[in-house]
Structures are given as structure tokens and as C-alpha cells.
Design goal:
Elements (H helix, E strand, L loop, with lengths): L2 H32 L5 H4 L18 E4 L2 E5 L5 H8 L14 E13 L4 E4 L8 E5 L4 E8 L3 E4 L4 E3 L3 E2 L8 E10 L4 E4 L8 E5 L4 E8 L3 E4 L4 E3 L3 E2 L14 E4 L5 E5 L2 E4 L2 E3 L16 H16 L6 E3 L4 H15 L1 H7 L13 E4 L10 H9 L5 E3 L6 H4 L7 E4 L2 H10 L3 H5 L12
Antiparallel strand pairs: 1-2, 2-3, 3-6, 3-9, 4-5, 6-7, 7-8, 10-13, 10-16, 11-12, 13-14, 14-15, 17-18, 18-19, 19-20, 21-22, 22-24, 23-24
Helix pairs in contact: 5-6
The structure holds zinc ion.
Zinc ion (ZN) binds next to loops.
């Protein structure tokens, strides 16, 4: 084939395809007449060379009703019926069981009151979603439907349950001013003073930040308008890291005992510590520690010989268990009260696996024969009353005569004989400090 012939062939092919294209456009013109009130919006859903697309929908048929405009639900059938029949005639979409809605003009600015909700293409539940909105996004409403949707200016719909006239107030801010230190590595600031909101910037241990406000949700607002949870800020530079993903260290407590962090777990004098200052990682889930359980069984049978019945009410508790329990108490009693008797997740003595609540979670347990026996004898089996009476200021918790903690016999006897709480004895703190709302 000569070069000239090739050129001619190519031109001929081009002419033929152009004709086919024009024919297609004519067919499309016909289809446009089917939905009487064709608009720009549905034009855009057609792609050239193809009469329609799967998602191509024609704009709703409009008829006037009193006080509003009624819409038939759009149909997406034209394309397939054209192609299968090979005829430009289009069968009328079946609108028999198709739901409808009526729109009434309405205009105003509204706020999205739920995070992550979607606008939809129709004013109908389960219709396709278009755009995701964040909490307190502002939208302009142009109509209201009798299906309880608001129509936005882009023609999409959001259910009226998810729009409010006012922004949601999720926290209140109190102005404060100060320099604080990030007390852990891998701390992120967030765009909102609420858990789980988007993170902004990563901070390292002892990064200094300027705080301009604190919130009633226990966040500190930085001068750049972002928020860091109070758990992660301290008033002083920290020598002992509080975070869980930090390098191991070894140091001495105020009273000269060894304090060390091994794999995110703090030990003082070899005793694993979980209190308001020292946390356990979420991943630390030992279950009941066998030596603690053996010691309990030994104590239980010794008690039995004295006619005393001891039994476990609560033992090991995982980080996740504690998270749920604490959230429930906060919900019931408020954070301030909950913090006097319940631990925040990661701070619970029960997560160590060395702890048992025995018999009764009632302070009057102190005066029962079982409570008296326990206080007198538990040390010889390696247990201490972890939160003694009148030691709230040191332990961070109210008196719990039922809560025993295994530390080994020698230590238990020394601590008990001293009349001190574990925190006082070792010279360590137990304080959420920055996070306690006062
Ligand atoms: Zn307990």
C-alpha cells in the first residue's frame, strides 16, 4: 500500500467516525426530549461518543404543587435502552414505584452537627453519597424537602437531623498563659480539643510550648490554635519520661530507690508501678501474675483456718477494660469524682496483674472480720493495702480496704510496718496534676 493510499484510508476512517459521532449526538438530542426539562447538570453526566453513562441521570421532572415543586425520582435507564434496541426511540422509564419528594424554598446557613456525614444526590435515605462533611462545616441551604432533607446550593441533600442552626459547642476555653513542656515523645497537637480529632504537629520530649487557654475537655490550646491533651504537658522539664514508647532509663527516686523503665514499664525497687504519674502501655496485658495468684491462694487457705472467707471480686484488668470502666464512671459522676476512685486507662494498678479486689467494694469492709483479718495478715503473704486510709494525697485514691497489691513478702512487711503508702515509702508521685479539673 502506498503512502498516499494510507493517508486516504485514514481520512476516510476519520470521516466515517465523525458521522457516527454526529449520529450519536442526534440520538442524544432525542433522549434529551424524553426528560422534558433537560439541564446543564445532566449534560455533564454524558460523556462524548457515549449516549449516557451508568450514573447518568436526567434531572427530575418538575411539576407545580402548592407551596413547592414536586420531583419525580430521576431514572438512569435511557442509555441501555438506546443501545440494546438500536433505535433512537427511548422507552419511558418506569416511575411507578419510584419515591418522590417535594421541595419548599428555604434559605439559610447551617452547620453540620455530626462528624463525617455525607451529602446525597437525592433527598432519600440510602441514595448515593456525594461529599463528606466535618463537624461544624457551614453549608448554605436552598430548600427543604418533605422527606426531611435540606437541599444545599450544590443541589445535594443532607438529612435535617445532621444540620443545626448553630455551631456545636464541644468545649469551653478558659484563658491561661504559660510555658509548658511536652512530657513524652510522639505527642501530636490536634485541630480540636476532642479525642480523635485530626493531628497537626508532632512533638518530642521536652519541646517547649506556649499555652494560651485550657479547655473543659482537658486540652491545652497552643498559640497556633491547636490543642494538646493535658496528659502530655508538664509544668517542668521532665527527667523521667512518662510516655510509653520511650527509651529505657534508670534513675533514683526522691528516697533513693532505683526507678527504671523497661519496655515502657516503670519499676521502683523492682516493683511495677501503675499510678496517676506512671502508666503502663496499652499493649501490656499479662493477665493475673502467677506468683500473685499463688500468694493469694496461700493467704486464702490461711484465712480459712481462722474462719475467714476471702474471695476475689476483681483481679486483672486490661487497658481496654479500664478504658470502658473509666468512661462509664466519668459519664455517671463526672471526671473529677471518677478520678478519686477510678483510674484512667494505663494508670490502673489492676493492669499490673498483681492486684486483687477482695470480698466487698464497700469502705465498711474495713470493719468486717474479713477486712480486719486482711489488714492484719496480708503483708505476710506479700500483699499491701494499696490505698490506705488517709493517704489520698499520696496515692491519688481514696481508701480501699479491699484492694491488695502483691509486692513480695519482704517489701510488703517493710511498707506495712512503715505505716506509709507505697508512694510515700518509695518517694514517687501519683498525680495527673495538669489534667485534674479543679
Ligand atoms: Zn481495685
Amino acid at each position: 500500500m502506498s503512502f498516499k493510499k494510507t493517508i486516504i484510508t485514514v481520512i476516510a476512517i476519520l470521516i466515517v467516525s465523525s458521522c457516527m459521532f454526529i449520529l450519536a449526538m442526534i440520538i442524544r438530542g432525542k433522549s434529551d426530549t424524553v426528560s422534558r426539562d433537560q439541564s446543564e447538570q445532566s449534560e455533564n453526566t454524558y460523556s462524548s461518543g457515549n449516549v449516557s453513562t451508568d450514573s447518568g441521570y436526567s434531572v427530575p421532572e418538575v411539576s407545580s404543587t402548592q407551596g413547592g415543586t414536586s420531583y419525580d425520582i430521576p431514572s438512569s435507564t435511557p442509555a441501555s435502552s438506546i443501545q440494546s434496541s438500536g433505535s433512537p426511540e427511548i422507552s419511558q422509564p418506569n416511575t411507578q414505584d419510584v419515591p418522590q419528594w417535594t421541595e419548599t424554598n428555604k434559605s439559610g446557613e447551617y452547620y453540620v452537627n455530626t462528624d463525617g456525614i455525607y451529602s446525597r444526590i437525592y433527598a432519600l435515605q440510602d441514595s448515593d453519597t456525594v461529599k463528606q462533611y466535618r463537624l461544624n462545616d457551614k453549608v448554605t441551604v436552598v430548600a427543604k424537602t418533605d422527606t426531611d432533607y435540606f437541599k444545599l446550593e450544590d443541589g445535594t441533600f443532607i438529612h435535617s437531623d445532621y444540620l443545626s442552626k448553630n455551631e456545636e459547642t464541644l468545649w469551653t476555653e478558659t484563658e491561661i498563659n504559660g510555658e509548658y513542656y511536652v512530657n513524652s515523645d510522639d505527642v501530636y497537637s490536634r485541630i480540636s480539643a476532642i479525642q480523635g480529632s485530626d493531628t497537626v504537629e508532632r512533638y518530642e520530649l521536652n519541646d517547649k510550648v506556649t499555652v494560651i487557654a485550657r479547655t473543659d475537655t482537658d486540652y491545652f490550646k497552643l498559640e497556633d490554635g491547636t490543642f494538646i491533651h493535658c496528659d502530655y504537658l508538664s509544668e517542668e522539664e521532665v527527667k523521667i519520661n512518662l510516655g510509653s514508647n520511650l527509651p529505657d532509663y534508670s534513675s533514683l527516686t526522691q528516697n533513693g530507690y532505683t526507678i527504671e523503665r523497661i519496655n515502657g514499664i516503670t519499676y521502683v525497687d523492682g516493683v511495677m508501678i501503675a499510678n496517676k504519674t506512671y502508666t503502663l502501655p496499652r499493649s501490656y496485658s499479662p493477665g493475673i501474675q502467677p506468683d500473685a495468684y499463688d500468694a493469694f491462694l496461700e493467704m486464702q487457705s490461711a484465712a480459712e483456718q481462722d474462719g475467714i472467707s476471702l474471695y476475689i471480686v476483681s483481679g486483672y484488668r486490661s487497658y481496654d477494660d479500664q478504658e470502658a470502666i473509666y468512661a462509664r464512671y466519668v459519664n455517671d459522676d463526672g471526671k473529677e469524682a471518677a478520678d478519686t476512685y477510678s483510674s484512667r486507662p494505663g494508670h490502673s494498678d489492676h493492669q499490673t496483674g498483681y492486684t486483687f479486689d477482695l470480698n466487698s467494694l464497700d469502705q465498711d469492709f474495713e470493719y468486717t472480720p474479713e477486712g480486719i483479718w486482711l489488714a492484719e495478715h496480708c503483708a505476710q503473704f506479700g500483699f499491701i493495702i494499696r490505698y490506705p486510709k488517709g493517704k489520698d494525697a499520696y496515692t491519688g485514691y481514696m481508701f480501699e480496704p479491699w484492694h491488695v497489691r502483691y509486692v513480695g513478702r519482704e517489701r510488703a512487711e517493710a511498707i506495712t510496718d512503715s505505716g506509709l503508702s507505697l508512694e510515700e515509702y518509695y518517694g514517687i508521685s501519683s498525680d495527673y496534676s495538669l489534667c485534674v479539673n479543679e
